[in-house]
Amino acid sequence: MQPKVPVSRISVAPMMDWTDRHYRFFLRLISKHTLLYTEMVTTGAILRGKDNHRYLEYSKEEHPVALQLGGDSPTALAECAKIGEDYGYDEINLNVGCPSDRVQSGSFGACLMKEPDLVAEMVTACKSQVKIPVTVKHRIGVNGKESYEDLHHFVSKIRSAGVDQIIVHARIAILEGLSPKENRTIPPLRYEDVYSLKKDFPDLPIVINGGIKTHEEVEQHLTKVDGVMIGRAAYDNPFLFSEVDSLYYDSKDSVRTREEVLSELIPYVHSVLEKEGKVHYILRHILGLYHGERGAREYRKFLTDRMHNHDATESILKDYLLLR
Q1: Domain range list for the chain
Q2: What is the DSSP letter of 113?
Q3: Whether the model pTM is above 0.85
Q4: Which residues of 147-176 are buried (b: 16+ CB within 10 A; e: fewer)?
Q5: Pick the CATH number of 258-323 from 1.10.10.10, 1.20.120.1460, 3.50.50.60, 3.90.850.10
Q6: Is 63 annotated as a binding residue?
Q7: Which of 21, 36, 108, 273 is the most exposed place for a label (fewest CB within 10 A)?
Q8: CA-CA distance, 110 to 321, in Å (whole number)?
Q9: Over the stretch 120-144, which tens digit does the pLDDT of each residue have?
Q10: Which are the catalytic amino acids?
Q11: What confidence tens digit (pLDDT) does each residue in 173-195 have?
Q12: Of 268, 260, 270, 259, nearest to 315 (Cα)?
């Protein structure tokens, strides 16, 4: 019997305001096996929020799906990890990579790379409460702690704490002077540092993240590490994932066309609108479906001209499909 393909072989990065439950449902129509991550949810939102269900709710079709938590209290993170497990999430991921000012003001995210002992405590606390994997997503460093030796020390600490997998964004985070957007592009990519981690920690599953946009790049990285996480390209060009199941998970299922994806999205949009929200909350996530194809501009214009109307419904998708 061939070994099972790791669920984390290909994943979509957690992205604030982007990878909400509507995007995740849409992406699942394109790929059945890609591992999906929630937006970061803070421990405060879960433990002190008036409606934590709103942050944790997801559709059963999203599996496999991981919950990303943000916080710096081992006790609070452990409590939230247990809640996430009870909700049925497949993995708990700790955010040690976000460089935004809002996250830094709460003393978590990328600035935690300066405190490897604390992150190790966070991992230990979460693992004491859940049976599902506990993983950490982090940078290769932060300004002032940006050498490979610093990175190796950080990983050795959380590895000793029992972390099940790490996802490494192959850029440092510059905590002062750069915006989150600039932190995704200005610090140079150092893929070799991630490859070196795999050599130094061969038994630790390692996923690489940062600047990856094509299947050619994915296949190259997979010769060095265990998995690849794709960020902005997953949002800008979601149909890139139409080949993921066959290329990386040995799936023999037929690939849906873009039109089939839109058709299958219609009942989901209808069910959501019966309960809450506006149609543009969902359709904003699908504007890149025809990326690189003839008619992409017209498709985007068709949706954007209509989806903000106060009475807009899933009929926008039906009308578009009639024009195809």
Answers
A1: 7-248, 258-323
A2: G
A3: yes
A4: eeebbeebbbbbbebebbbbbbbbbbbbbe
A5: 1.20.120.1460
A6: no
A7: 273
A8: 44
A9: 999 999 999 999 999 999 999 998 8
A10: 98
A11: 887 777 777 777 778 899 999 99
A12: 270
